[in-house]
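Forgive a beginner's question, but might I ask you for the amino acids of a protein and the tokens describing how it folds?
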Amino acid sequence: MHDLARQATSFLFVPATRPERLAKALDSGCDMVIADWEDAVAPADKAAARDALAQAVAALPAPARARILVRINAEGTPWHGDDLTALAALVSQGVAGAVVSKAERAQTLHAVAQAAGAQAALLPLVESVAGLDAANALANAPQVVRLAFGHLDFQVDAGMACDSEGTEDELLPIRMALVLASRRAGLSAPVDGVTVDTRNPERMARDAARARRMGFGGKLCIHPAQVAVLHAAFDPDAAAVAQAHRVQQALEEAGGGVCVLDGRMVDAPVLQQALQTLARHAWAQGRVAGG
């Protein structure tokens, strides 16, 4: 239970008001789809979005339902309570769980977990300074499998003005804080925020590569074309896999001690990096086989 949510690299948003896009999103090659009841849905359409998603999910086979998360409206909004009721019904039908928008309190996650049921995976979306302050508590809340970063809302809340064409250096400390909070709690690596330019694969590739270097385990997507670019950044290529095997073999031949490979010292941390590369490769191969 929750293994897919823990290991997934790509999370593709789909407006719940467009149920016809759900199957297309599932066929896009992404690991998980996030059906959105929050930002993508106008206030007047919230109830219709819940009904539309329920009908769309009922028509899907069980393996497809297990790849769906629902982004619910934040605590304190008029729609949060009804979202929890609808979420519980979806989870009982096999939907994986929820992305909890604007998460700021562990108590909120306790309530969502209680409402949705023990089988629901939760991904709190850190989108505010209060959410960042509570990151450790959020990461340790029940049924939380990953933290996710809503960097656009975070900038607004913090009064920041990052260069939209640059590297968002101003947000590097925030991203690292989420990586460290996840590690302290023993969670899978967190999920980085969206790249808003859907027609710029180079920007998506740069953003994804930065996320990977910083210790993120995946990224939110808003267009199917971003999925393959994201996977290319996170999935080890043939050269990386071959090198990881060489490191593993060299240490085995050295009896587990320190050795030298290509003029460089190889020790336990290098082996661990190699094993992580092989694990990510195995996940990517499983995705290809399963897709």
Q: What stands out?
A: The first helix runs from residue 3 to 7. The chain is about 50% helix and 15% strand. The beta strands are 10-15, 32-36, 68-72, 97-100, 121-126, 148-149, 191-192, 218-221, 259-261, 264-266. The chain has a mean pLDDT of 93.
